[in-house]
Amino acid sequence: MAETIRTSEKPSNSSSLNPPSRIICHVCQKQFSQYTCPRCNSRYCSLPCYKSHSIRCTESFMRENVVEELRHLQSDDRTKRKMLEILKRFHSEDETEPLDEDVDDSILSDDTIQKILSGGEVNINDLSLEEKKRFQRALASGELSKMIEPWDPWWLKPAARTICLSKDGAQLIQPMANREDLESDQPSDIPCGPKTPLPSLHKLISTEPSPLLAVHLVDIIYSYCFTLRVYNGDWQSDAVGSAMVVLSISSVLGQAGQPETVQEALCYCLEQTCSPAYRHVGGLQFGLALVDDITNLLSLGSPALICMLCDLQKMIMAAGRELKSKKQRKLRKSETKSKLKLAERKVYFIMCWVHEQPNKALSSLAAIVSAEKSSLMEYGGNKSFPRTEKNVAGNKGKALIEEM
């Protein structure tokens, strides 16, 4: 008996004695329908037919899914704004580029996209061989990077020059009436300062602080700027990975090193930037641009530096919390936790030290860093840097911060 073709929308009861009937796509009227629109129950055969069957229907369906997903995420306003901006940008690109059914240059097949639209999770193993090839080509050509909006460092924004903290270094309390105005100007891009007052150095150590702390600050600033630029400003997406990058770049935080000059500190950081592990990021030119970031942060004064160090402390503490939930070998996990704990103490100590430094001293340090960049560019032209291994290996036995 020939298979029955139906065009009505009434469901049919199928059984072993009554084979299921097939319904023609309501859009193209050529292919058998495979899917049903969740909004109007219209039957369609492919993604192009789904997009063209009803603009009002597809937009309302996507909007409801986004709103529902945002509810489950329980994210902050900043994350919601980013999500909406991505959706608006994607929608505008979709309108400016008309659909050409004769050319299929999409990375994913219709079935895979349909699975994503239905709420299913898709990973690299779910893709077919052809889809994997398309994905790798798009990744290598930089096509996927166009979907990521370049991050604008917060220390380069005008609002960074107006950061205000209390006399004890803690963040100021904002009036409730001004919260909406603050959100409209997006000051949340700038990290907040400490919630509690910073103690005096005399309460943390019994001796005078080391004169090398200014050099160590340069090392820490470089590692922070490096990590945020690599993660496009979003270290929260991978706190453990971000903290590990900081420890690998900074000799002070990751190797218990104590560089004695600004040149030694910068050379070690540039060596790590040009190493095989991070060479793909940008090499020497990227590292020299980070030196400019150090100068900019130092020129902003102690409030901006305290906010930066507070953000770095939050990153390290978040990495410690995430590490507890991850399954790793106990020995390796214990070593990483010890490194993170020591690094967090050093960052907090440097934060208290910066709070007591006059802006004039920080400006002088910025001038020294700027002058060192010129000499480092000469070394960079010869593909060599002053050796700094003695600084790392020879000072491992020394403690930068006394136990509190």
UniProtKB/TrEMBL annotation:
GO terms for molecular function: zinc ion binding. Coiled coil: none annotated. PROSITE patterns: ZF_HIT (PS51083). It comes from the Eukaryota. Residues 25-57 form the HIT-type domain. Keywords: Metal-binding, Zinc, Zinc-finger. Pfam families: SHQ1 (PF04925), zf-HIT (PF04438). PANTHER family: ZINC FINGER HIT DOMAIN CONTAINING PROTEIN 2 PROTEIN FON -RELATED, ZINC FINGER HIT DOMAIN-CONTAINING PROTEIN 2. This is HIT-type domain-containing protein. It comes from Gossypium stocksii. The lineage of its organism: Eukaryota, Viridiplantae, Streptophyta, Embryophyta, Tracheophyta.
